[in-house]
């Protein structure tokens, strides 16, 4: 039986608070400055200076602006690092708008197919509610970008530059989701009227034509063929004629993206280590690469990241960036704020508890470009963000190793760096299917 709060309890709480000098001191500081400023630990900044024993040259940072494309920026940044080095390009970027267009177009089709697949369920079912809550959004996963590149290729930023709606995507998302929810009404209605597959697909085709029109109006028309001119770092002129997005990828990147694997650290009871997982209704390209994760313990997780960095290759990674971090100075450290002392409350939870109880999940993707190794152990990590160069150290952040333990959930590494045991796990056909709302299905 529910029980109300009694006034004598409130009087007791107020009396106890007023008797504690520490709490009154915190009250004065927090009332004037907010919670975080009085809690900031100066010495954490001293421990997390931007100096690293392994430090890759990666150039200027990019800026996703007012959009949720961090996963896309992070992945494209890992590619541009290699392009810039191989072809001596300075300040080179790949078109985030190009992949943004095709991601939203494919997500619409993915949504329609899921609506058709759940049309026999009540609107109040958890799966249908999950789909309708956010038909599409900016976020994504590494494997979703791989699916886009394998189907559509990639282009330089100059070939399909940013637009207002790619840099500030809120309004575009509003109207895409408005249309997709309306389309869901029609698709469910057709299923209830026993429409056949041909009728359903014909109706879906009309809906996709509308999606394409919205995207082309907002983001521009994706190029199918183009010439690409550039001057390299030695000021030598180059021109590549008659490129397609696929041939550009083959010439300038050429990596077999199937040779990379998403590795996660999810220490929850429902996800034993050294097993493969996928998430129901998570993806963008129907028939494209499936999102798959290999769950490992944190020592293995960090060893894989370090191995790839030592090989001279940056690492895509996903984390909960809002936890215990400063945006202006770019410090991610478990001790950067001591809010527990400021508010006299114990906020501690284990990583598993945070995942199980909705306190944390992957919210942002960035790139590991360095690590500091002292006495064979990592102490801090260099992070390339995509929030422009006005934050952190010219856009680069520092992540303490303890923060990596607590709030980092995903990296992408070459399969060749896996142990023989883990290679066998990846090659095995057994993959555990997780619910659509599982935290490992969070979109960065």
From TrEMBL:
Regions annotated as coiled coil: none
UniProt keyword terms in alphabetical order: Aminopeptidase, Hydrolase, Protease, Thiol protease
What Pfam families is this protein classified in? Peptidase_C1_2
Superkingdom of origin: Bacteria
Which InterPro entries does the record match to this protein?
Answer: Papain-like_cys_pep_sf, Pept_cys_AS, Pept_his_AS, Peptidase_C1B
What Gene3D superfamilies has UniProt attached to this entry?
Answer: Cysteine proteinases
- Family recorded in the similarity comment: Belongs to the peptidase C1 family.
Recorded protein name is Aminopeptidase
Instruction: Record the organism.
Output: Vagococcus proximus
For this protein's source organism, the top of the classification is: Bacteria, Bacillati, Bacillota, Bacilli, Lactobacillales
């Amino acid at each position: 039986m529910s029980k109300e709060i009694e006034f004598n309890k409130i009087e007791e709480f107020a009396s106890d608070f007023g008797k504690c000098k520490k709490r009154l001191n915190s009250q004065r500081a927090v009332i004037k400055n907010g919670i975080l400023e009085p809690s900031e630990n100066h010495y954490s900044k001293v421990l997390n200076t931007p100096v690293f024993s392994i430090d890759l040259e990666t150039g200027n940072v990019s800026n996703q602006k007012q959009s949720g494309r961090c996963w896309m920026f992070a992945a494209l940044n890992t590619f541009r690092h290699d392009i810039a080095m191989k072809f001596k390009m300075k300040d080179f970027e790949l078109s985030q708008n190009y992949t943004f267009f095709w991601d939203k177009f494919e997500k619409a089709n993915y949504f329609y197919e899921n609506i058709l697949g759940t049309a026999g369920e009540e609107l109040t079912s958890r799966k249908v509610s999950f789909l309708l809550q956010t038909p599409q959004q900016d976020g994504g996963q590494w494997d979703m970008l791989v699916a886009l590149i394998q189907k559509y290729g990639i282009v330089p930023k100059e070939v399909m530059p940013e637009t207002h709606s790619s840099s500030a995507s809120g309004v575009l998302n509003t109207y895409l989701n408005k249309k997709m929810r309306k389309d869901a009404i029609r698709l469910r209605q057709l299923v209830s009227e026993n429409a056949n597959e041909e009728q359903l697909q014909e109706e879906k085709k009309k809906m996709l034509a509308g999606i394409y029109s919205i995207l082309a109006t907002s983001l521009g028309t994706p190029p199918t063929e183009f010439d690409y001119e550039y001057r390299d770092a030695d000021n030598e002129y180059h021109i590549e004629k008659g490129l397609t997005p696929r041939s550009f990828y083959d010439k300038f990147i050429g990596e077999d993206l199937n040779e990379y694997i998403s590795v996660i650290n999810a220490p929850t009871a429902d996800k034993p280590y050294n097993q493969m997982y996928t998430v129901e209704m998570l993806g963008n390209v129907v028939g494209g690469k499936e999102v798959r994760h290999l769950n490992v313990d944190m020592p293995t997780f960090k060893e894989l990241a370090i191995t790839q960095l030592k090989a001279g290759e940056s690492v895509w990674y996903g984390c909960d960036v809002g936890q215990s971090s400063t945006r202006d100075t770019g410090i991610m450290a478990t001790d950067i704020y001591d809010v527990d002392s400021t508010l006299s409350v114990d906020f501690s939870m284990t990583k598993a508890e945070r995942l199980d109880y909705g306190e944390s999940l992957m919210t942002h993707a960035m790139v590991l470009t360095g690590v500091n190794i002292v006495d064979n152990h990592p102490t801090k990590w260099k992070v390339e963000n995509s929030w422009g160069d006005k934050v952190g150290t010219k856009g680069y952040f520092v992540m303490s190793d303890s923060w990596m333990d607590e709030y980092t959930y995903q990296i992408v590494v070459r399969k060749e760096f896996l142990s023989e045991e883990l290679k066998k796990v990846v090659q095995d056909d057994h993959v555990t299917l997780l619910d659509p709302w599982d935290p490992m299905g969070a979109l960065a």
